[in-house]
Amino acid sequence: MENVAIFDSPGKGRGLKATKEFWAGDVIFSEPSLAAVVFDSLAERICHSCFRRQEKLQRCGQCKFAHYCDRTCQRAGWAEHKQECSAIKAFGKAPNENIRLVARIMWRIDQEGSVVSDMQITTLDELEDHLTDLQEDEMKEFKVDIHNFLDYWPRGSKQHTVDEISHILGVINCNGFTVSDQRGLQAVGVGLFPNLCLVNHDCWPNCTVILNHGNQSAVNTMYHSQRRIELRSLGKIKEGEELTVAYVDYLNLSEERKKLLKTQYFFDCTCEHCTNHIKDDLKMGGKEVEGVKPPEEQVKEATDFCFEILEKIEQARLNADYHEVVKLCTQCIEKAEPVLADTHIYLLRVWSVFSEVQAYLQYFEEAADYARKMVEGYMKLYNTNNAALGMAAMRAGVNHWQAGLIEVGHSMICKAYAILMVTHGATHPITKDLEAMRIQTEMELRMFKQNEYVYHSMRDAALKNKPMSMMHEPKSMEEGIKNLFHRKK
Ligand SMILES: [Zn+2]
Ligand SMILES: [Zn+2]
Ligand SMILES: [Zn+2]
């Protein structure tokens, strides 16, 4: 860990600073998880060892709770499942994900000591648990977890005091990192990465965190080797500068971000963007036509209208009633688009859902059109190298390609690729997908310029094979993963 040092960050407590200069895309450190677990809700759909989503998983014959891709994954996961397996059997069922995670952490620390790798620069004892900041109802839930933990923890394992257990549960509560599937599209579990807990928040950060599952063939060689996070630099960072990441999505108003940070992470954000309400005006703004903005009343009315309809849209989407989603979005767009700025966050949200559902229903032109608007809005709001912007550009690129708009499609894919090279790195599965798309669209673009007829017939054939399809069912696809740390709702 020669790249970073722990220091006292003014007003923030402990933090990490760079001990040398970094450039966009540099990996400042990479860290394996101390422990991680699959969410309760996905226990039968995600492999408990490699955290990949698979159609068919094999169940652990002993506890009947853990699921694995195959023998290889089961063997690789055995070291961290062994004690859990007999505890679940004895307990009669699997306890919730928080309790399972605390137990996995404790078994590991009991076995290997408080520092489990030579890269780990902090012990769990030194991390904040914010127990005194918990609200009354949170405290109630917390006590239930402690109680259940004590029932679950085997007599034969090393015994711990309630204070020790509470501390680890508290640490997880504010620092449990959201683990995504291999393509980074869905939140599937929660894990603890001790060094990452030292990186403070900034709404306009200089770093990003990405989980890289590595390649599957290397999985079984090392304990936990497959789940590593990388702290990556988003731009130039000077020696001595504090390293920061965003705990919450920037596409919230500064007041909303501050509220989220206060209730979930227990601090008051004093970053430049919050203090000066930077870009709040764009996020709630009216559409300027020839230098004239609509009256405030009208903007507010359209904003409220969007807000209300977004709730209905979300409901229809959850019910998989996609034609209703299209109907509601169309209604909203008709009313709000002439009034609201193209950076208005509710309008962006509507465009995003609309294009996603249209692509699913195979209305590719509409999908492409609104995905492009969304990307253009994002570009005015987000940092140039923002992962959510990169993913949006990728989606827009695919939609354009699907619609036969190869020139814009190719340029969007290139844009996405450039961003993801910084935020995800060349070895991430999504970046590799993008590279393949970049090469394919480049070839098609060349063909298009030579002979449009040949291009179109080739594209029709390619569409039938759907090699670049991103048509998940919209309800299963999250809007990226916007909260860095996992909070139980
Ligand atoms: Zn697996
Ligand atoms: Zn088992
Ligand atoms: Zn802030």
Quick take:
With 489 residues, the chain is mainly alpha-helical.
Provide the descriptors you would attach to this structure in a database record.
single chain, 489 residues, mainly alpha, Beta-clip-like, Serine Threonine Protein Phosphatase 5, Tetratricopeptide repeat, 3 domains, three-stranded antiparallel sheet, 15 helices, 11% strand, binds zinc ion
Number of strands: 12
Q: H/E series, N to C? A: EEEEEEHHHHEEEEEEHHHHHHHHHHH
> Which structural category do the helix and sheet elements fall into?
mainly alpha
Between the first and last Cα atoms, what is the distance in angstroms?
Answer: 35 Å
CATH topology of the largest domain: Beta-clip-like
C-alpha Rg (nearest Å): 24 Å
Low-confidence stretches: 217-224, 476-480
Q: What are the bound molecules?
A: zinc ion
The dominant shape is globular
Which oligomeric form is depicted?
single chain
Q: CATH-wise, what's the superfamily of the largest domain?
A: SET domain
